[in-house]
């Protein structure tokens, strides 16, 4: 594929994709465009070979055009987004600016270089979206399919739904060669500590409360980030132009179950490695206790969707995607990664 442009490539999912793509496509040069806001970190992609980091804004259309033209880039993988629901509730404007206006800026640049001024060569604009655009499911509702009507319930999901529609429109109106993937809840290495799994893990190590929204029975489909990267690769390799693919992890679990797995995993790690008690003296298992005692129920957040679930039949049948990790092994590996990479997440806590 030669050069590939990855927006938001210093963030969580984008950074994991950069590592994944570099390992499997060592002859490609990866150009990462990232504004390096709070969730983008140089350290996430340090040491990746044939990778160049450009600090810039996806809303800078001229910059994107320049990169596409000068580097002869024919593939964009678009991760850059504001993605934390709580932040979208307290400050929606940033989500409108980045997720909608930023995506439109990228699409304009791609159209200008690949279509208006281009040679008609094959190209690909792959857009990363979320299952949250579909809204909330009841306990007995079938999982989200690619043809499930959009019904976003938060400013975050509404902004992602808008960006999905823009990508679709640029394909159907202008002929831009696009694909879109809608993923479920990601977890794994390099995730910013505001999200559930790293937040609860780090709180557990510090002996801080584990704040559980409402009754803790909100259900999500959990997708290990490496499986997500495999799904994106399948979209790029086998996806049909203009199509959307749901990428799930096959692990539909209530939040309480996820939190209990974190608690058990932390306790097991301390039992296996006694030196952790010296590193994290405030953690309950360092004092002979159980991490589960830190669980604390708090007022539910506004507009909290009850259940998400992904039907990945289309992705399995047409692009050859299937998750390779189950949640039990994935969460163990994730806990081990955070314990082994304390300097990375410690630096984010200030």
TrEMBL record:
A Pfam family reported for this protein in Swiss-Prot or TrEMBL: GDP_Man_Dehyd
Domain NAD(P)-binding: 5-334
EC number per UniProt: 4.2.1.46
Catalytic activity reported: dTDP-alpha-D-glucose = dTDP-4-dehydro-6-deoxy-alpha-D-glucose + H2O
Start and end residues of each stretch annotated as Disordered: 136-157
InterPro entries, sorted: dTDP_Gluc_deHydtase, NAD(P)-bd_dom, NAD(P)-bd_dom_sf
Keywords recorded for this protein, A-Z: Lyase, NAD
Source organism, top-level taxon: Bacteria
UniProt cofactor(s): NAD(+)
Primary enzyme class: lyase
An MF annotation (GO) of this entry: dTDP-glucose 4,6-dehydratase activity
Family (UniProt): Belongs to the NAD(P)-dependent epimerase/dehydratase family. dTDP-glucose dehydratase subfamily.
Protein name as annotated: dTDP-glucose 4,6-dehydratase
Source organism per UniProt: Novosphingobium mangrovi
């Amino acid at each position: 594929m030669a050069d590939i442009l990855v927006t938001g490539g210093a963030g969580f999912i984008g950074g994991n994709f950069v590592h994944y793509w570099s390992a499997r496509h060592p002859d490609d040069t990866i150009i990462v465009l990232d504004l390096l806001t709070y969730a983008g970190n140089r350290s996430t992609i340090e040491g990746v070979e044939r990778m160049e980091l450009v600090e810039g804004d996806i809303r800078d259309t001229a910059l994107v055009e320049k990169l596409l033209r000068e580097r002869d880039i024919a593939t964009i993988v678009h991760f850059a987004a504001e993605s934390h629901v709580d932040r979208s509730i307290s400050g929606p404007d940033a989500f409108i600016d980045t997720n909608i206006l930023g995506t439109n800026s990228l699409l304009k640049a791609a159209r200008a270089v690949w279509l208006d001024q281009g040679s008609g060569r094959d190209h690909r604009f792959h857009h990363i979206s979320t299952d949250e655009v579909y809204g909330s499911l009841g306990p007995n509702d079938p999982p989200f399919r690619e043809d499930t009507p959009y019904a976003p319930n938060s400013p975050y999901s509404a902004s992602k739904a808008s960006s999905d529609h823009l990508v679709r429109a640029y394909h159907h109106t202008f002929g831009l060669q696009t694909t879109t993937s809608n993923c479920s809840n990601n977890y794994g290495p390099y995730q910013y500590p505001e999200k559930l799994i790293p937040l609860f893990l780090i709180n557990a190590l510090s002996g801080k409360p584990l704040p559980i929204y409402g009754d803790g029975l909100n259900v999500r489909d959990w997708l290990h980030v490496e499986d997500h990267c495999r799904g994106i690769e399948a979209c790029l390799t086998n996806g049909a132009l203009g199509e959307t693919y749901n990428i799930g992890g096959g692990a539909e679990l209530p939040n309480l179950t996820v939190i209990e797995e974190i608690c058990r995993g932390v306790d097991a790690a301390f039992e296996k490695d006694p030196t952790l008690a010296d590193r994290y003296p405030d953690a309950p298992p360092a004092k002979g206790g159980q991490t589960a005692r830190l669980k604390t129920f708090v007022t539910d957040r506004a507009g909290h969707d009850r259940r998400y679930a992904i039907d990945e039949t289309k992705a399995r049948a047409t692009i050859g995607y299937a998750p390779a990790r189950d949640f039990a092994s994935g969460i163990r590996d994730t806990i081990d990664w955070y314990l082994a990479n304390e300097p990375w997440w410690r630096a984010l806590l200030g």
